[in-house]
Amino acid sequence: MSGKEGSDPVLPPYRSGAIEDPRLPLNPYSDDQQPWPGLAEKMDPQPDHGEESYKGHDRLKGKRALITGGDSGIGRAAAIAYAREGADVAINYHPDEESDAQTVVKLIEAEGRRAVALPADIRDEQAARKVIDDAVKGLGGLEVLVLNAGRQQAQKSIADITSDAFDATIKTNIYAPFWMAQQALPYLKKGASIIVTSSINAFSPSPDMLDYAMTKGAGKVFAQGLAKQLAPKGIRVNAVAPGPFWTALQVSGGQPREDLPEFGADSPLGRAGQPVEIAPIYVLLASDEASYITGEVYGATGGSGTG
Ligand code: NAD
Ligand code: MG
Q1: Which fold has domain 56-300?
Q2: CA distance linking residue 121 with residue 118, whole number of Å
Q3: What is the pTM of this model?
Q4: Percentage of the chain with pLDDT > 90?
Q5: Exposed, middle or buried: residue 82 (CB in 10 Å: 0-12, 13-18, 19+)?
Q6: Considering 57, 168, 236, 279, which has the largest number of Cβ atoms within 10 A of its Cβ?
Q7: pLDDT band for position 19 (cuts 50, 70, 90)
Q8: Pocket of ligand 1 (CB under 6 A)
Q9: Which residues are annotated as catalytic?
Q10: How far is the CA of 229 from the centre of ligand 2 (A)?
Q11: How far does residue 9's CA lie from ligand 1's centre (Å)?
């Protein structure tokens, strides 16, 4: 720690016990895989979503947020942070993820905030639109929409991506955010914020994630274009572009098995990120502090960059 002996260490404001050296800890991962969609609770080692460490400062007091894919990974980290910053939070997730989702519901409620659990397969248009309506009913309104759910299934060759797999990726990563933003629009008032989870793949596509990278490029452009369209209504739209983060998506087909133990080690910081390390970006973009921030793409890539 950087503080003198006996004095309080200087910590980033959002995390207690945060590490001083951003290269650490190095993460030796197992190559355990799970069937899609994967559960955070079965991962080895457990990801850090901020359960023990995220400290809130009322930056989202009174806001109501829906986070798709809020059961695990980056979405769970955002859900925990949002609740600790004073927001009520609805999470959407696939029905096979109920146990992860219930863990998040308990964490939100432990902050005295309202939690709304919305299981639904959002590849289906009606189901995706109903999630929005149910979130608004459950929360009593909506100020923050985080379009974060995503599908990533690695394939070494374009020849091995079936039309069904391609369709599932496009439905999850392009159609669903489009349907959900469209459905949410009548509910969103001035000051509302939409956040789309894109990826470093939108800038530097991995050769073994061709279909996924295409959709993440689309997500980035969607956020940038929608930001211009909604600016006259006082609604902000931004994208987040994560680099490698240790989440269920990666161990349920997102990476080739042989790449899992060294996952993220090729980034300049030498390791993958933990979901809690990207939560502050989601908090900033949702908060009124970001009142002049729209149409932007925020990276958290461990040094690889988004240029
Ligand atoms: P994750 O598996 O924890 O979260 C993805 C979530 O998407 C799942 O929990 C699930 O609830 C949801 N989802 C997927 N298909 C669905 C469907 N058909 N119906 C309903 N929900 C569905 O993994 P994550 O890494 O936290 O992923 C969150 C977002 O971050 C994704 O959009 C992903 O593409 C993006 N991302 C992740 C990384 C990374 O390294 N982990 C890097 C760049 C971008
Ligand atoms: Mg999940």
Answers
A1: Rossmann fold (3.40.50)
A2: 10
A3: 0.96
A4: 89
A5: buried
A6: 279
A7: low
A8: 37-38, 69, 71-75, 93-94, 97, 121-123, 148-152, 172, 197, 199, 242, 244-245, 247-250
A9: 212
A10: 31
A11: 34
